[in-house]
């Protein structure tokens, strides 16, 4: 394992060593946040090996203390590993883990575990119930034993039944299977799934939760129903490694989900238009917020991961709530992360001329939190949008940061080397619709020049931001942490996360620039950049 670790992060969650993937069972219990995660304790960053649950606890979701591994093979129903799952607090005070166990025949079943001692706020030890598995694929239920996994947090309706979703598929039909139970041990499959959609393949890690319709950034318990909430259904598409979600209505009489605006199409909503998979939310009743966690995998090769001895980090936890439009979620890094901010660098309001860069000085640019807002004016020279440009990711890769436009590209060059041999560009580009005066805003994260190392995946990411740039302005908040760049547009409307591996722009050799390579000038109305302290993540 290499001693030099320029890609380890300073304030993103990651274990000391080895392979990590999905967040599992997040919960707040007796005032302590618990994060579990898919962990392969052998192999120095290689995915090959059985999964157990890693476990860490925290008081702020920023600093984490490691706890002993749990759900190691204990009985037939998890002999070959413990896959993803969730925690539900039952009877008001007992945390229960439902997770996917792998049997010696490599069948996927659902298992139940309880803390050995519920008076231990650290929940160090867990015991599997003798009744396991509590849900299994059978001939009658027509469930494929290799496509039956990732139970959600359960919710309960007034009939007293708990309900849980399990991800599945039949041929190409993706399914959120519904099971019900009065006692959390005996589970009966519902006749119909909560929701399904053809030609989408396996649905991993489903998540289902209510959000208030009032547009306030407060969360609500998973069992909440009624006219004050809408429901979010999220699934992780195994085929494309995308976390997509819909806003819709939960019909509790039919136990069915009705998305407001279709489910899977080219414009499916995604939490994140970069790297972001197997995410999961939980309700934090202490701060009345719903928190979204996710696995961010490496873009490097497995050989490089084994060399560095680890693979996989988690995104900064995000608070999520329903936008005022009720058409999408808003996501914002948890407030606690701002406690790591030090030495703010505030740039005065200024014009950034077309074709120029401005260096942001006096900052640890490899470990930073940056906020920048722009004001743009309607200009005679603005590119017309071609109606055939339906794929924002493709458009971003065709019109990279060095391709000048009328308004844009402008944004930030992050993890940049002094000679700009390396940088990850996060930027906007504004078009005018072909036949109207409407503006179209493209947001891009371009990794193509992120590293002189030719081996990492440097795919460019992109998304359209649904905003009127003249009236509302444009803003970016970018969390930079050595090998990750998480970019939030317009206060959390759209998010793009990227993993990058600079070879020159490391440690104190890293620079940060604002740039405008468009023809027209743009105003920077606000720029504050903070160096970030290291979090305690042992
Ligand atoms: N990872 C887990 C599965 C899940 C997949 C196994 C998603 O439970 O379906 O580590 O990344």
TrEMBL record:
InterPro entries: ConA-like_dom_sf, Fructan_Metab_Enzymes, Glyco_hydro_32, Glyco_hydro_32_C, Glyco_hydro_32_N, Glyco_hydro_beta-prop_sf. Residues 338-530 form the Glycosyl hydrolase family 32 C-terminal domain. Pfam families: Glyco_hydro_32C (PF08244), Glyco_hydro_32N (PF00251). GO terms for biological process: carbohydrate metabolic process. Gene3D superfamilies: Exo-inulinase, domain 1, Glycosyl hydrolase domain, family 43. Keywords: Glycosidase, Hydrolase. Transmembrane segments: none annotated. SUPFAM superfamilies: Arabinanase/levansucrase/invertase (SSF75005), Concanavalin A-like lectins/glucanases (SSF49899). Residues 12-333 form the Glycosyl hydrolase family 32 N-terminal domain. The keyword Hydrolase applies. One of its GO terms (molecular function) is hydrolase activity, hydrolyzing O-glycosyl compounds. Belongs to the glycosyl hydrolase 32 family. This is Fructan 6-exohydrolase. It comes from Spinacia oleracea.
């Amino acid at each position: 394992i290499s001693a030099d670790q320029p890609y380890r992060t300073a304030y993103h969650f990651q274990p000391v060593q080895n392979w990590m993937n999905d967040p599992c069972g997040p919960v707040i219990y007796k005032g302590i946040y618990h994060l579990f995660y898919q962990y392969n304790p052998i192999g120095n960053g290689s995915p090959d090996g059985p999964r157990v649950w890693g476990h860490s606890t925290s008081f702020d979701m920023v600093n984490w203390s490691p706890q002993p591994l749990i759900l190691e093979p204990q009985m037939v129903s998890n002999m070959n590993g413990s896959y993803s799952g969730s925690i539900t607090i039952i009877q008001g005070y007992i945390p229960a883990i439902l997770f996917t166990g792998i049997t010696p025949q490599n069948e996927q079943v659902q298992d139940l575990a309880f803390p050995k001692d519920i008076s231990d706020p650290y929940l160090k030890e867990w015991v599997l119930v003798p009744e396991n598995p509590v849900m299994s694929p059978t001939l009658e239920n027509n469930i494929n034993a290799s496509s039956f996994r990732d139970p959600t947090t359960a919710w309960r309706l007034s009939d007293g039944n708990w309900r849980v979703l399990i991800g599945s598929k039949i041929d190409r039909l993706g399914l959120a299977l519904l099971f019900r139970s009065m006692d959390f041990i005996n589970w009966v499959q519902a006749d119909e799934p909560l929701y399904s959609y053809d030609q989408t393949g396996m649905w991993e890690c489903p998540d289902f939760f209510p959000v208030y319709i009032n547009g306030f950034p407060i969360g609500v318990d998973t069992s909440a129903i009624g006219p004050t909430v809408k429901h979010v259904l999220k699934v992780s598409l195994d085929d494309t490694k995308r976390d997509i979600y819909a806003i819709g209505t939960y019909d509790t009489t039919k136990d069915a989900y009705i998305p407001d605006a279709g489910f899977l199409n080219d414009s499916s909503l995604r939490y994140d238009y970069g790297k972001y998979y197997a995410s999961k939310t939980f309700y934090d009743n202490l701060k009345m917020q719903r928190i979204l966690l996710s696995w961010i995998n490496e873009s490097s090769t497995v050989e490089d991961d084994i060399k560095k001895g680890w693979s996989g980090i988690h995104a900064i936890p995000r608070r999520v709530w329903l936008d005022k439009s009720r058409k999408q979620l808003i996501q914002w890094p948890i407030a606690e992360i701002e406690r790591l901010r030090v030495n703010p660098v505030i740039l005065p309001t200024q014009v950034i001329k077309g074709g120029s860069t401005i260096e942001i000085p006096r900052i640890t640019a490899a470990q930073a939190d940056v906020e920048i807002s722009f004001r743009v004016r309607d200009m005679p020279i603005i590119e017309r949008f071609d109606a055939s440009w339906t794929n924002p990711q493709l458009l971003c890769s065709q019109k990279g940061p060095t391709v000048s436009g009328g308004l844009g590209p402008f944004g930030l060059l992050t993890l940049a080397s002094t000679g700009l041999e390396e940088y990850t560009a996060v930027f906007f580009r504004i078009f005018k619709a072909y036949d109207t005066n409407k503006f179209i805003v493209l947001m891009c994260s371009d990794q193509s020049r992120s590293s002189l190392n030719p081996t990492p995946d440097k795919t460019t990411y992109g998304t359209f931001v649904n905003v009127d740039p003249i009236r509302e302005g444009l803003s970016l908040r970018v969390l930079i942490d050595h090998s990750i760049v998480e970019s939030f547009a317009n206060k959390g409307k759209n998010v793009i996360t990227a993993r990058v591996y600079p070879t020159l722009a490391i440690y104190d050799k890293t620079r940060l620039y604002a740039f405008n390579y468009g023809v027209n000038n743009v105003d920077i109305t606000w720029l504050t950049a903070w160096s970030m302290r290291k979090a305690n993540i042992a």
